Amino acid sequence: AVVGCTALAASGGSGSRHVALTRTRFDLVLVDEASQLLLPTALGALLCLRSPDGTKCNESGRFVLVGDPHQLPPLVQSAKACQAGLDRSLFTHLLDLCHDRPSVPNGRVVELNLQYRMNAPILRLTNELSYSNSMQPIDSIVSNATLADRLCPLPARLFGDTMWNSCSGVDRQYSNQTEALLVAFLVRLLLQCGLDAVDLGVIAPHRSQVALLNRVLAEPTPGTMESTATRQLATGVEVNTVDQFQGRDKRAIVLSLTVCTSNQNTRRGPSRNLLEDLARLTVALTRAKHKLLVIGCSGRERSANESHDIHLFDHSDSVLHRLFELLFRSNDYHALTQDDFAFVKRLEQR
User: Fold this and answer.
1) CA distance 207 to 239
2) What pTM did the predictor assign?
3) Are the C-beta atoms of residues 286 and 116 closer than 8 Å to each other?
4) What is the pLDDT of residues 213-234, one digit of tens each?
5) How far is 180 from 197, CA to CA, in rounded Å?
6) Which domains does the chain show, CATH number per domain?
7) Strand 288-296 and strand 250-256: pairing?
8) More confident residue, 307 or 4
9) Per the record, what are the reactions this protein catalyses (predicted)?
């Protein structure tokens, strides 16, 4: 028999495990998204393995852990738990063990480098940023997939740089009004072009920006003839944090970076940019299947001859600056002008 359940339902003692699994044992246990699971939860799921006498787990059963070490690890908020190593998954522990011990037999670790989600432009970006160009599309259908022709005026991937606005739109709660208005404009544009709300997602790193985006999308666009139907569609678009989007995808994703990368020393201290974590940024960029639109402030000064300037960003240790450089070099970079922001300000003031 094949039984599917959550890792939490399969873990724990006989008193807390799902009743259907209390006496059932299996020859094989496969744990998906294992790189994001807490260590005790993953170990608990392995208690479902069969043994010769039917009571204990041993080498007679086999388990497979499937995960992505380049994406988010388990979420652990306790400092003591992190110090004890509980912020590392069983998947990561075993992966490091296999890499550190040459004596581990070949075949114990298999790299799955074929993906079924992203089209070629989006995959190329994440390949260069996170996967050392190791990922490949499963076939040409996935690689060449796009939205319908009527949505093609926007490229498969695009970064809108709000550098003219700098950091003025970011408040103490890590929300950005200017970006929220720009994102809402793009969301309504995609919906009016025929994209279904269920196929569109909006991602922001901070919960406060998610809350702001939901409020802006629920409001009618000032000074426009927007229909009630369009506004209702906009409120049906899922808006969530990066962490909540892990493991899922949408045909189109609009990503709000929220915090300006030049805002390193504000009155409240260094800016807390969650997307400087490469694993979190990787998750954000890999949720889109056909179109990825990124809105944010690169923090750079506008170059007088930027079309020929190949040293626009100080890489240092900034993950986001690496992303901006890749987008600029591939002509997916669009610097929003002062006129663009004047338009947004007019919407905000009406």
Assistant:
1) 10
2) 0.82
3) no
4) 999 998 876 555 455 666 667 7
5) 17
6) 7-100 (3.40.50.300), 114-349 (3.40.50.300)
7) parallel
8) 4
9) ATP + H2O = ADP + phosphate + H(+)
